[in-house]
Amino acid sequence: MSRPALSAELERALLSLDGLAIGDALGEMLAYRYDEAAKRIQDDSMPAGPWFHTDDTEMAIAVVETLRLARGIDQDTLAFYFARRFDAAPDRGYGKMTRMQLRSVLEGKPWRVASASAFSGRGSMGNGSAMRVAPVGGYFADNLLRACSEARLSSEVTHMHPEGIAGAIAVAAAAAMAWQTREMESAERWRILFEAVINHTPPGEVQRGLEKAVGLTGASIEDAARALGNGALVTAPDSVPFAVWCAATHLQDFPGAISAAISGGGDCDTIAAMAGGIVALSVGREGIPVRWLQARERLPFDP
Ligand SMILES: [Mg+2]
């Protein structure tokens, strides 16, 4: 079945969402034996679908719904879609703070108040705004500055802390750059992608992690996870640099990116969602195993 022609922007956002949803579902499924994830992915010994996704994809769907409706991140619309999807399916593994915030929004509290008051007024620096943002980078892939400013807007709805915002900007920038550099030689891509991501990420811990990541060219997955963090703390600084490293080391290898992201242990579904959302924009839908596309849970945008 075919669907009506979509804008190039929306097509890219949906491609990124595909990668994100598959990473999320595989990360969730393989997290308990993450040390075996690489072998299971290599042998393709995962069960038949549907592979159910978690909160990462639920929130990313809300992001894409907002992009489709408003052609950008309208924050009120995004908060509405977040809350509505949470209300319809609250048991998708949402973090405690996000549950509290979305419940407040459902009760009528303005999202800005709920977001600003998180963690005693510091705002959240969790990885929740980075895990869902790659489609924003896809949508605005031909305009890196816009991708970053829209990523900031999307983060603020739930994650107001500067590090939470920086994490979202970094992932969106990496996603946009994965698309922009998709026809370049690999050695050159590494440098160009990291340079752009580091330059557009606001200074702080996330940016310092990215600066560390760019030096880890030949490192093993274990060494990179140890040096950068693997999301076990579920903060943006502890997740985003490793996820970008997994993506940047596998820009032409979607299964390899997902495998690396999960093999780091830690917050497997979220790291793999971020890496998958980035690398999908580099390899295209042809670069994602057909069986994986068929096995993932259906999305509202499917034809
Ligand atoms: Mg999750």
Automatic annotation (TrEMBL):
InterPro entries: ADP-ribosylglycohydrolase, Ribosyl_crysJ1, Ribosyl_crysJ1_sf. Keywords: Hydrolase, Magnesium, Metal-binding. This is ADP-ribosylglycohydrolase. Binds 2 magnesium ions per subunit. One of its GO terms (molecular function) is hydrolase activity. Mg(2+) binds at T54, D55, D56, D267, D269, T270. It holds the Pfam family ADP_ribosyl_GH. Its cofactor is Mg(2+).
